[in-house]
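Pipeline run #58 for the internal structure catalog. This entry was flagged by the ingest filter as a single-chain record with no existing model, so it goes straight to prediction. Upstream metadata was stripped on purpose; only the residue string is passed forward. Reviewer on rotation: M.T. Logging verbosity set to normal.
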Amino acid sequence: MSHSRRRGQFRSALTAAATASALVVCLAPSAAAQDHSTDTTVNFSVSNITDFHGHIEQVVDTGDDGVPGTADDTVTEAGAATIAGMVDRLRAAEGIDGHIHTTSGDNVGGSAFTSALLDDEPTLEVLNEMGVDVSAVGNHEFDQGYEDLIGRISENSDYPILGANVTVEDGREELDAYDIQTITDEAGNSVDVAFIGTVTQSTADKVSPSAVEGITFANPWEVTNRIAAELSDDDEGNGEADVVIALLHEGTEPGQFTEDVDVVFAGDTHVQDSEWEGEQPIVLQNLEYGKLMSNVRFSFDTETEEVSMEPAVYTADEMATLAEPHAEVQATVDAAVVKAESAGAEVVAELEHSFTRGARGEEGPGSNRGVESTLNNLIAEAQRSYLEDFTGVEMDLGLMNAGGVRADLAAGDVTYKEAFDVQPFGNDLMYGTLTGADILTALEQQWQDPAAGRPRLALGVSDNFSYSYDPTAPDGERVIQATIDGVPLDPNADYQVAASTFLFESGDGFTALQNARNSQNVGVVDVTAFIDYLSSTENVEPRWGQSDVGVSIDGDVVAGETVTVDLESLIYTIDPTATQVTVRIGDAEASAPIDVTVLDDEYGTSGRASVDITVPEDFSGAGEMTVTTDAGTEVGVPLVESEAPSDNSGSTPGSSAEAGPIGAVVAAIAALAGALGLANVFSGGQLLADFQDTVQREINRLLS
């Protein structure tokens, strides 16, 4: 079977300036197709969406004016009714003998509010109503286990769900590998179109292990190529097809498929991909949530067995311009919205304590993203705990961005809708491996360009994580020491970190988190995990103490000398509980009251105190200072003994800037590292302090 490729009209989905009249042309048969319309030619088209995730409602960006229904409006997610209307338009296009509508998996699971609340029942219904003809299985279809996939999902889908690379043990029913659909024109000419469906091989890492127990996932490209070869080898014994289309729930790269595959509709990675240059196959990937639809128009000559293909890609806004919403689908969506509003009142948890966002001055919760808050920390802990239980992988740290927390949680009953309002953006949860140095850099990136509007964006952290920082230090050098479960972070060690896709994709400027290795998107929406944590955890309490404290020292750290320790970030800006702070160096201890005034800034400085403490007479070389409060805060600060008392002040804790010859040695080595391009080795007070401690100990050992 030979395949010829005829270059046709191809529109980028990002050509936002295209007019409706220009788009209509793409739906009419091209001159090439009309010329090829002989008695032996069958003309048909195949459309595709992917990673729908239950986004059945249309989403509109109201633009700069913020007013719906104006010229500034842009449809960003088509919604099920508009997608169905577009499919109807493609089926009715002039010169088309048949149309097949497909999806590349993740139709359900990780879904938007309305569909998720109703167990994706409305999504399964509208997919049938819009006329999906065939689908690949996605990793999300395994979320509730294989039995749920072949039961509830498959039984309520009027189309085959394909999983050619999915192997099931114990004799259980397996998914079909491929599906062949025949299109026949009025003259009786027919074409057999094969669809091979596969899912990402990393499915086993994206869902709960118990959900895929006894199931293996082979390489999707290899499996697709093998089946495509069988369908193209003229051996009727193993099935034959005239056109082969891969429904691939995985991202793809050039060269992964053979010429036996004509078109690849990819998915899973939520990106756009449009390749129509060079050898076969055409590769198309349509973002997610109904933001794009692609359509390939085929002309197949039954006599010569040649096929020509013309792809087009439509944005959600273009679909809304071209197509009338499908009335039956719209009615299903409207009914689901009403039902979800009622179901949203369901109580999912009961809290004894309130959890709030940060405040600035008297502006109230939510006005300050630069400070630590009980709710931001709670979500970070929930994500760490949930992913640990879900994956069976020990999570060292959970992180959360303050901007992703959009409402507070009051004590008492918590409804589904209230929990959803806290995290409304629908980010997926991920985990990945970061070095200690990456984590330290991410902490440094909390301090941002003041000109950008928010000088600090505080990270929520899980309950097992604490750190100290010097607010007087330069950018990139503020963090003094960080600990996980009380153990100082090792810059060279690896840690498993749980967070949202937003953070791992460097959202809010946290670019260090992009360094994550072996990262896995588990396909669970953040609010789903949050609700599960609230409902399954007994006695959910705020982290009463602070995770981070600002520390700077005025004076020389020398035995017998008194230094002043200036502290900040000792309280939450809503309902502070700490009133007294205690500083300890060895056996020495000193306390002071905390000024609990909530300050009008965005640097996390509220909760200030100054403590005078005398360095113990037996202090020598290096040690640690601890800072605690009566609310439960505890952070450590490594100290290095100064050479002798001096008139200098403002020494940085754990730094060697004022530490005599040790400081000179370290400064010289740091300068050399900078010249060699290794300056990052000395970034942050933590690693610098560790190096100083080592040098000091060795000198003391040699002199003893």
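catalog note: Residues 1-37, 645-652, 654-689, 698-704 have pLDDT under 50 and may be disordered.
catalog note: Residues 128 and 158 are 6 Å apart (CA to CA).
status: ready for reviewer M.T.
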